[in-house]
Specification:
Blueprint lengths: L16 H19 L4 H9 L2 H14 L10 H18 L4 H5 L4 H25 L14 H12 L3 H10 L4 H27 L1 H8 L4 H17 L5 H30 L14 H16 L12 H17 L6 H4 L1 H25 L3 H12 L5 H8 L4 H29 L2
Helix pairs in contact: 1-3, 3-14, 4-12, 4-13, 4-14, 6-7, 6-16, 6-17, 6-19, 7-8, 7-9, 7-19, 8-19, 9-16, 9-17, 12-13, 13-19, 16-17, 17-18, 17-19, 18-19
């Protein structure tokens, strides 16, 4: 497949990141206000279109029409390095780790099933599409479609950090990468819309297949009771304490990552393909999440009563908007056939999950969160878990961290398998 060359960069209408940031936050505010509206039109709209997809889509429109530029802005870097780790700290702050462990092995089984679905779905989609249109999944050098698909595999097994790692490891061209980010977000969010629909009917689905969700219900009630117990009117002191905890642990994460990553890299030859644990971003995520977990055993977890997880979720949505800035929405029209490839790929992932869930009688919660811990990572797994109940968001965070750990290894394997079957 021939990927158009990237044209010379054109300055966007808005170049000041402070203005861009304000535009993104106002956009997010408008989305949340309309989503919570009682007006029938908005209720019907958000019943069909997930608000998370809109949070990606509108910034991508701003980028595609030249109003802002995701390529020239530094907001994604700031959001991913500062707001994401702080969000992970605040979302794991109130986690009930013993309760999560009591959920049993089915949560891990469904997560790993989702991973396997991505690994085999990539090469299988290439084989199926190449039988009809070999040129579509062909190409040479940095614009080879299988290379671009490795970045989707990275995103679908862990998230944005692994996606960036695959781009560098497999030498993906910038234009192809931009298109694949769009394929990733659109296809993944269509699947997420299906999962959100299943979440609304989870009790009926679980009853039909005989799934036992008593452990999930018990954990939900326990975390809900804790939130009610510590709930209070938020004061300025509470907000400053939340900020101190979130960004304080984030600072420790950066400090640890700045030391660990170079030290681990020193053991590898220059130019060698590096494993995931030599990434500073990986250690930042791990340290931030570990810090939140440790604090969950201390009185700091009482900050949930002042809205710690809500602040963390707000940070997470700002990250989502900055990712949307990097999407090329015009690719939906110009490169629509690649969305067919993505659709086949996600169908393999979804089918495998549905079959295994039926075989082991796994609750819908495990299927949905296990899928999103792969497909969306830390950006969407907590959101999916919260769709079942806001108190369950930390479960999504925990599985998403596992996705980060597996991502580069399994996405790399997927890349080599796709290379082997590419025409």
């Amino acid at each position: 497949m021939s990927i158009p060359a990237t044209s010379a960069a054109v300055a966007p209408l808005i170049t000041n990141d402070a203005v861009v940031f304000g535009l993104l936050v106002v956009t997010l505010g408008a989305i949340f206000l309309t989503e919570s509206s009682d007006k029938p039109g908005w209720r019907r709209f958000y019943k069909v279109v997930p608000s998370l997809l809109v949070c990606y889509f509108l910034p991508s429109v701003f980028n595609s029409i030249g109003l802002i530029s995701g390529e020239q802005s530094n907001l994604y870097f700031v959001a991913s390095r500062y707001l994401l780790p702080a969000s992970l700290v605040l979302l794991t702050l109130t986690i009930d780790l013993p309760g999560i462990l009591r959920l049993g092995p089915k949560a891990i089984i469904m997560f790993l099933t989702g991973t396997i679905g991505v690994v085999i779905g990539g090469p299988l989609s290439i084989l199926l599409i190449s039988a009809v249109d070999p040129e579509l999944v062909g190409g040479q050098g940095p614009d080879a479609v299988w290379r671009g698909m490795t970045t989707v595999a990275g995103s679908w097994i862990g998230g944005g950090a692994n996606q960036a790692a695959m781009k560098e490891a497999f030498g993906v061209g910038d234009r192809l990468f931009s298109i694949m980010v769009t394929v990733d977000v659109i296809v993944a969010n269509v699947w997420m819309a299906v999962l959100l629909g299943m979440a609304g009917r989870s009790d009926d689905i679980d009853n039909r297949i005989g799934a036992d969700n008593t452990a999930i219900a018990a954990l939900t009630h326990k975390m809900q009771d804790f939130q009610a117990q510590v709930a209070k009117v938020t004061s300025l002191t509470d907000l400053m304490a939340i900020a101190a905890v979130g960004f304080g642990i984030t600072a420790i994460g950066h400090l640890g990552a700045d030391w660990l990553a170079p030290w681990l890299k020193s053991g590898y030859a220059p130019g060698a393909e590096l494993p995931f644990y030599t990434s500073g971003f990986f250690w930042l995520v791990v340290i931030a999440t570990t810090g939140g977990l440790l604090l969950s055993f201390t009185p700091a977890r009482n900050l949930e009563g002042a809205g710690a997880s809500k602040v963390g979720s707000a940070f997470l949505y700002i990250l989502v908007a900055t990712i949307g800035m990097k999407m090329d929405i015009t690719a939906v029209v110009s490169e629509w056939k690649l969305f067919v490839v993505g659709g086949v790929w996600i169908s393999v992932h979804a089918t495998l999950l549905l079959v295994v869930a039926r075989l082991i009688r796994a609750p819908t919660f495990f299927l949905a969160v296990g899928s999103q811990a792969n497909i969306g990572g830390a950006a969407s797994a907590p959101i999916m878990a919260a769709a079942f109940h806001p108190a369950l968001a930390p479960v999504g965070v925990m599985l998403a961290v596992l996705g980060y750990a597996l991502g580069t290894y399994m996405a790399g394997l997927t890349g080599y398998l796709m290379q082997a079957v590419a025409p």
